[in-house]
Amino acid sequence: MDLSVVITGASSGIGLAAAEQFAARGDRVFLIGRHPRRLAEAVERVTKAGGGKPACAQADFEDLSQVRDLAARLHDEVKTIDVLANNAGGMIKDYRVTGDGYEAAIQSNHLGPFLLTTLLRDCLSGARVVTTSSRAHHDGRPDPADFHKDPGYRHRYGAAKAANVLFAAELARRWPDVTSVSFHPGVVRSNFGEGPLVRLFYRYAPGLVPADRAGEQLVWLATAPADRLVNGAYYVGREPTQPAAHASDPAVAARLWEASEAAVRAE
Fold first, then answer.
1. Does pTM top 0.85 for this prediction?
2. 95, 102, 153, 157: the active-site residue
3. In this structure, is the dihedral angle defined by the CA atoms of residues 70, 38, 158 and 156, taken in order, positive or negative?
4. At what angle do helices 153-174 and 112-119 cross, to 10 degrees?
5. Nearest to 109 by CA among 140, 73, 145, 77
6. Known catalytic residue: 204?
7. Do residues 185 and 217 make contact, with C-beta atoms less than 8 angstroms apart?
8. pLDDT tens-digit series, residues 106-128
9. How many independent structural domains does the chain possess?
10. What residue numbers bound the domain in which 216 lies?
């Protein structure tokens, strides 16, 4: 059976590789990306992979109004979603506050995906939500009481990735009809990060994981039989793995969910 698949962060890296693999399976893919040129190039690549020309939409998760517009469009054009891949986000070099008033890393990696997912709730019955996290979640803790503070460069990204793990687990608890997992894709060769040195590292450093292999992990998590998965778990490879203690506390996850709801609906 072909699936209806929505992928954020689909214009490069893991998201694009996964989109090509879904298309090759015959699934219907909806691509979401920030950069118009990269998104157009991604559409061409996914079209060549099979299944016809995919739908696409441009949206920057550092602007919550764009996330709301995206959700409205998906309601109109997709209606039923079998797989939502929350893959948008990235490592942000400098501290900055978005126009919505939140630190950019926590907004683009967590609050934006949180808002999109919750706005699509009625499209996701029986669906699978796969959220791209990172082993970097060990390096930072999200503060549900303060989404605009600056914990420092490394800790900003770590906090956002810990938020991904907490969100995926809490979604599984709150929405029992949805299968929700997060995963560490490895350190992937991609256009990841900001600044020339970071970009050079993610393109040329030895030992980087090819994007297509990380994409395979996302596709497996999205399509494996439900009895092969642990709902709410954090995966490394195909194995559920215990995350850091601060990213596995249900009480923290519940507080983060409630604070995130308040933040994205504050306007």
1. yes
2. 157
3. negative
4. 20
5. 140
6. no
7. yes
8. 999 999 999 999 999 999 999 99
9. 1
10. 4-264
